[in-house]
Amino acid sequence: MAQRQLRQLAGMRENREWIDEVLPATLAALPYPHFFVDFETCAPAVPRYRGLRPFETLAFQWCCQTIDAPDAPPRHSEWIQTSDTFPNTAFAAALRRQLGDHGPVFVWSSHEATVLRPIQRQMADRGETDSEIYDWLDRFLTGGRLVDMCRLTLKHYFHPRMGGSTSLKVVADAVGQSDATVRARLPQYVQPMADGGLASPYAALPPLQVGARSLSVADGTGAILAYYSMMERAAAGATLEVERWRQLLRQYCKLDTLAMVMVWWHWRGISG
Which of 18, 30, 191, 259 is 20 to 30 A off residue 152, Cα-Cα? Predict the structure, then answer.
């Protein structure tokens, strides 16, 4: 951590981007397809479903960008809870169909692993250890497929716009501000500001009308609150509002995965 802090101080003073020579070789060694995955989860204090304990994880959404070759465009896929029933087994089953058994899975931090392990324990508690999904979770969690891009950033990359942060939103914003090639690939997330600068890609997410309010979801806390609202309105039979909340969750989670792709594109570009 001391080395990282020294690198940040030097980069800020010199206003200079830095990429460790280890990072290009690390990326080049990974086989295709590449999967960029993000989960949306919550841990309610009051259990929502029978048999759960307080603060037990509910996994209600995942998004994935699949890149089949170095210059191939990302292919989007997703799963989101659509009925008010315990979602975790269906979540894991859909993820298994998407990721299969081969290819690195890029994530930002250890959140995804810390979600899948409790899901596996929940399946054991429910007597589902003989299922294909349980076996796949075991292979996935022990197979070394997860690639933590946050850890790669801490060890091998710095941009002066990041300051002391390695948050995905901060790193993606730094990349988007400095790399015109990345902006050209995803123009829908480029939003000029009045002072001539560029807003964060997350500021470009369009708000939607939900009931009498114009709302947007642009962070993890907002996603949790949107999920609770979506479930509440589903119980009340408010179909249109449920669909609007679902759309807000979809566009936010999609951008989280595309933000990882932006960073990956930039790393490949500056490393040759």
Answer: 191
